[in-house]
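Data card: per-record layout.
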Amino acid sequence: MRNPLNININSFGLGISDNSLRAAKIKKEKSGLVLASFGRKEIGEEIIKNGKVKNEDLLASSVKDLLKKIKGEKIKTRHVAASLPEEKSFLHFIEMPRMNDEELKKAVIYEAENYIPLPLSEVYLDFQVISSLKANKGNLNVLIVAQPKKIIDPFVSSLKKAGLFPVFLEIEPTSIARSLIVQKEKGGSFLLIDIGQTKTSFIIFYEGLIRFTSSIFIPLKDFAKADRISSAEEKEPRVDGAETKEALLPVLDKIVEAAQKHLKYYDSYTSAGQNGKAENISKIIISGSNANLKNLPNLLSEKLQINTETGNPFANFSKGSQKISDSEALSYSTAFGLALQGFEL
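The structure for this 345-residue chain is written out next.
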């Protein structure tokens, strides 16, 4: 759901989740793109719960408060690129006969009724032709994306109440991928795992586009013990980090189980769509506020048998003079990705 005029407007990124708000502004200098501003504010379930805005006025007030306390340069622009909850969106690939743009638009709207579990009058619908996927001869692969209006409208209304003008809206996985994957790797296949405070998102990225997304909820208390022990081991290292590993098991098992399910789906999808030849995931990239747990990449590599690494939140720009640690920056992947839209990477 981009700026309909497709104009490159100077905007900042605003990642919105159930638990927090994160803002980021990127600017272009002679040396390249650098982080100009960043900040976060924790919020409660009285404002957003399960991806739904519960109180527009409180959300607007929280956004205003965040912008007053921003670190780095003051954010002066009122134009914002904001995230939308992935768990409330519908993504589906369909195969269509080749036709001109106007005919395709009408055909996709007609065809979407078979895949979107809501009346089309109740959703915002968009689509994109995926030229990199192999379709049957003479056909087109099309990605359909739909978001319920009752979910989107309160987000937009809240931003306007905060005195902002939303010029760009997209689901979190797209922003995360833009932040973590560098241009030269965009032809590859990755599983991105964003481990937030309570929600862990799984994003399959293939040939430059999101192919599949899903989320699971892991209680904060499950991370708390592992984080506490991991921090203690950083100060006083054990021989093999066994205590951290044991504390991580409840979290690790949930993440591994979900990842295996999604990888199995991806394998069957690519096997069917690529003439029986599945495209292997080359690596797993983890990010999010809980991605810094000691030994987590190694444990995931061991369990899933796929090379796993902690993402680089500054993969597509520089930290500049802003004082933000790499570990803290991992929780800004969505905001950074939104802030990067409009720049050539």
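Known properties of this structure: The chain is about 35% helix and 30% strand. The two ends are 20 Å apart (CA to CA).

See the next section for split statistics.
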